[in-house]
Amino acid sequence: MDSYLVVSGAPNANEDHAENMLNLALGFVFSGRLVVVPGMNLAIRVRVGISCGPVVAGVVSQEKPRYCIFGQTVNVARQIRSFSLPGKILLTNSVRTTVSRNQKSNFTFTQHTVFEVGSTKVLTYFLEKNEKMSVWEICDVEKGPADSIDGYRELHSTEGAEMWDSSKRAVLRQQQVIDAFRPGPSRTRRALTRLQSVKRKFRTAQSNDSGVSISEPNVESAVCSVM
């Protein structure tokens, strides 16, 4: 599985960082549906996780300089992305709180659940729509004659989801058979080892979810990360 990190508000401050990230996420999910996987005839279902909070950034390496982002906000975004669902945008309460402070913004959210990220409890929401902008405006595409007025029906369509699930189950069964005949640690064992390593990495008492006050102090948000 490929994943990408996108940041708004670094290195240059951006008052609309949360709004920009939500619109970008809507564009990602919709644009993914326009890409059909060869041989399967199924559209890509992108899943997104967004968090908001402080980060440390800088250029790393002399041989191959790269601008890198570090911090618990990045870790939370990565975890939230893993909790998200195909075709869905899951975000922390800190993002919802930040964007609600902007009088120009008007987004609709559906409360999801509370996840434990390390020792921190994070309240999450699914992003449903931007009440002030259609999908066609966000993606700068022309609405078709049979399309909905705002494009959110198409964005949230579950068409192809069952076939994707069936394909993933078939691939998993094939992989299990291959692992059974392969010497050395199986893929499942290697995945378990990686998960245990990630679990240790996320063990922290610090909360970076500025909108959550479940037994943790609030931290002022400064930047949004999307995974």
TrEMBL record:
<dbReference type="Pfam" id="PF00211">
    <property type="entry name" value="Guanylate_cyc"/>
</dbReference>
<protein>
    <submittedName>
        <fullName>Adenylate/guanylate cyclase catalytic domain protein</fullName>
    </submittedName>
</protein>
<keyword id="KW-0456">Lyase</keyword>
<feature type="domain" description="Guanylate cyclase">
    <location>
        <begin position="1"/>
        <end position="81"/>
    </location>
</feature>
<dbReference type="GO" id="GO:0004383">
    <property type="term" value="F:guanylate cyclase activity"/>
</dbReference>
<dbReference type="GO" id="GO:0070482">
    <property type="term" value="P:response to oxygen levels"/>
</dbReference>
<dbReference type="InterPro" id="IPR001054">
    <property type="entry name" value="A/G_cyclase"/>
</dbReference>
<dbReference type="InterPro" id="IPR029787">
    <property type="entry name" value="Nucleotide_cyclase"/>
</dbReference>
<dbReference type="GO" id="GO:0019934">
    <property type="term" value="P:cGMP-mediated signaling"/>
</dbReference>
<dbReference type="GO" id="GO:0008074">
    <property type="term" value="C:guanylate cyclase complex, soluble"/>
</dbReference>
